[in-house]
Amino acid sequence: MEDCIFCKIVKGEIPCTKVYENDDVLAFADINPIRDGHTLIIPKVHAENIWEISGESLTAIHLASRKVAAAMKKALEPEGIAFVQLNGRGVNQIVMHYHLHLVPRPKGAPELPLTGWEMIPGDMEKIKEIADDIAGAVQIA
To answer: What's the farthest any 2 CA atoms get from each other in the chain?
Structure first.
């Protein structure tokens, strides 16, 4: 895609701080990091979101994420690593090219906002109704 910043990074038209690369994916440091070590992993083939990405690219991203996470664990010794992936402007996806965020949480650092929600029991009837609606819409490819 011509105007996609991540496609331009893949093509080498815009520089990045590369962390890992293979034939299918590119991992690089986020320039707006939530925490030190915040890394993005993107497919080299443009796909906007989870609904557009191929199974092959999705698999390649997650295999690469395991490799990058192992490197983060060794290099940074975090308490944990959040894997965050957003789909659509309604959940604040800014760059419309599928990407996976790996955000390490250093020892003693504040909780990451998305990983620390209050556990409040839900309405089990509503939960079941919504789960049944989703289950009914699942299409096996």
So the answer is: 52
Q: Is the pTM of this model over 0.85?
A: yes
* Residue for token pair 């760059």: 95
The DSSP output letter for 97 is: S
Phi and psi angles of residue 27, each rounded to the nearest 5 degrees, phi first: -115, 135
Query: Taking the CB of residue 16, how many other CB atoms lie within 10 A of it?
Result: 20
> Comparing C-alpha atoms, which of 2, 47, 5, 50 is closest to residue 24?
47
Q: One of 38, 46, 99, 101 is an active-site residue; which one?
A: 99
Does the domain formed by 5-137 have CATH 3.30.428.10?
A: yes
Distance of CA 49 to the CA centre of its chain: 10
**Residue 45 pLDDT > 60:** yes
Contacts with 70 (C-beta within 8 Å, 6 or more apart), sequence order: none
**97 classed as catalytic:** no
**Range name among 8-12, 71-75, 122-126 with the lowest pLDDT average:** 122-126
- Of 37, 36, 45, 23, the C-alpha closest to 99 is 45
pLDDT bracket for residue 120 (50, 70, 90): confident
